[in-house]
Amino acid sequence: MVSDRAGVRASATASPPSGGGVGASTSSSSARSARHRRLGLLALLLLASPAVGASGQAADAVPFTAQQSAQGARVYAQHCAACHGQQLEGFSGPVLAGPAFYGRDMGVPLHATFQYMAREMPVGRPGSLRREDYAALMALILEKNGYPAGDVALDYDTALRADAPLYFHRP
Fold first, then answer.
1. Residue 39 sits in which domain range?
2. Is 95 exposed, middle or buried (0-12, 13-18, 19+ CB in 10 A)?
3. In a shared domain, residues 139 and 88
4. Whether the Cβ atoms of residue 110 and residue 156 lie closer than 8 Å to each other
5. Residue 16 class from Cβ within 10 Å (0-12 exposed, 13-18 middle, 19+ buried)?
6. Where would a tag sit more exposed on the chain, N or C end, judged by fewer CB atoms within 10 A?
């Protein structure tokens, strides 16, 4: 296999299209050239577009509501802010929002962070919050990192399995 500049793979042993030999007419050459341009444009559009799943939503879309995030802010103020800072900026605990949070290229799935949070936090009392409070905390983290709130709430079990990448969305 050989890769061209657009990253499209083609067989190195592929036979030329019919009519492609020496002395081929200019019109068939033009048609091939136009077809290659269209295929190249299609490949470029596919590579440049955001990942979209079968549901039509972006691959990094995660369901949560604004109400969940507001609940998460209350839980966060009581159980998390002392270590992670009032604005999730980090203090003795790591940053949970903003440019210093996970980068998109790190490929950290949401479930990895959620599982750690639900099993190990808060410090000194791991796993002591209600399931809906952990989901609300994740909703807050998502909102503070630029994920849009929607009409569907994030539930605990969904968060445990969510493969969506977790990262800071630059404004």
1. 2-12+20-48
2. middle
3. yes
4. no
5. exposed
6. C
DSSP 31-85: HHHHHHHHHHHHHHHHHHSPPB-TTSSBTT-----HHHHHHHHHHHHHHTHHHH-
Per-residue pLDDT of the chain (171 residues; tens, 9 = 90+): 444 434 433 333 333 344 444 444 455 556 555 554 554 433 333 333 333 333 334 446 799 999 999 999 999 999 999 999 999 999 999 999 999 999 888 989 999 999 999 999 999 999 999 999 999 999 999 999 999 999 999 999 999 999 999 999 876
Q: How many domains does the chain have?
A: 2
